[in-house]
Amino acid sequence: MSFARQRKLATESELYEYAVNALARRMRTIAELKRMLRRRVDTESEIGQTLVELVTRRLKDQGYLSDLKYAALYSALRRDNEKFGRRRVISDLKAKGVHGEVLDKAVESAFAEVDDQKQAREYLRRKRIERPRNQKQAARVFRQLVRAGFRSSTVFQILRKWDLDEEFLLALEQDLPESID
Model pTM? Predict the structure, then answer.
């Protein structure tokens, strides 16, 4: 089964309609939308690049496209629904093309009054992760919490409350790269 080749859009109105339809399906960052639009125009010509810039500028001016709104909403949803930590939200937003001051402002406001330890415990409850019975399970829980965006100091506080072997926790802490905490 072969798929039909996507037709290249040649006018601003066609590209604008395509962009509005894409934004109607779900909210997107400016970088995501530009990537989508570039696939639908002839990017080798200066006209195609200009059309992409014109359409994104028009959408920004009309309030349909805003990285700040996107980042704020995305941060709040990932915090409340997925129970992720700050670091995970930051890395996800960077992957979506949100950077700099916009990202910092949105994440800071979303996580301003969040207790990291409580958020990590809610994450564990959501994922149905129980108290580890051995060192292998404890290491697995540690990796899951770090991957979910929690600082290693928060993870160690939780593991210590579970009365795990202190020597194992110290060994785990020493094996950490400095960039995690």
Answer: 0.82
